[in-house]
Give the backbone structure.
Amino acid sequence: VRGVVAFVAHGDKVYRALGIAPQARFASYEAALRGTLRSFQREKNTAVLSVEPWRIRIVTPRTDTNVTGFAQAYPGPLDANDLALLNGVEAGGRYARGVPFKRVVGKPLP
């Protein structure tokens, strides 16, 4: 393994960021890793700064429903497929009536 490191000062703290890759392939990743580490800077975009964390809520469907129906009944920032993945429901699978599942509550990211 080979890597590059950057130290970023913010306020009264110093953060260490590390980019690593297998030694045999490091040369092909090095420019991207160094560019990423150099890109750290103070965020000024108010839309990004005002992002609130998403919350998980437990819901119990009153009827059996498919992946799309569940996402429509419990809208949130995730699409139907990501919501199914979160709940361990296979694509094309069903949410069973009376079984607790997770939904995500929050505003979509900017």
About this structure: The helical segments are 26-38, 46-49, 67-73, 80-87. Residues 26-38 form the longest helix (13 residues). The chain has a mean pLDDT of 95. The CA atoms of residues 8 and 14 lie 5 Å apart.
